[in-house]
């Protein structure tokens, strides 16, 4: 599904903007940041839980109705969310030359 969402943006960036590397920012963040969020979250959650600190939180899905494919509540962890944030910050910093100040 990710490909179906990113393909129109990639075509638009290549034809109008001219910076093809910009499309790789969300792909990299989604692949690396979200891919590492679960193992990092599980590892650090179990580590903190040994000391009696719960670093998890619950969140609900956005823009879905009850009974939808991704509907319901989900358990997330702060270290997993920080992994996605840190990956996003590093990828944007690495590709900072692709942005203009206009």
Q: How do the SSEs run, as a string of H and E?
A: HHEEH
Q: Average the pLDDT over all residues and give the rounded result.
A: 80
Structural class label? mainly alpha
| Order of adjacent strands in the largest pleated sheet | 1-2
Characterize the largest beta sheet: strand count, sense, and whether it forms a barrel: 2 strands, antiparallel
Number of helices: 3
Q: In whole angstroms, how far apart are the ends?
A: 32 Å
Low-confidence stretches: none
Number of strand segments: 2
Query: Looking at the chains present, what oligomeric state does this protein adopt?
Result: single chain
Which band does the percent of strand residues land in? 5-15%
The helix content, as a percent range, equals 55-70%
* Overall 3D shape: flat
Number of domains: 1
Radius of gyration: 17 Å
Brief characterization of the structure:
Helix content is 59%, strand content 10%. The protein is mainly alpha-helical and 102 residues long.
Can you lay out the helices and strands and say which pair or pack?
Elements: H1 2-17, H2 24-50, E1 56-60, E2 73-77, H3 78-94
Antiparallel strand pairs: 1-2
Describe this structure in words.
With 102 residues, the chain is mainly alpha-helical. The chain is built from 3 helices and 2 strands, in the order ααββα. Helix 2 (24-50) packs antiparallel against helix 3. The longest helix has 27 residues, at 24-50. It starts with a helix and ends in an 8-residue tail after the last helix. The model has no long low-confidence stretch (mean pLDDT 80).
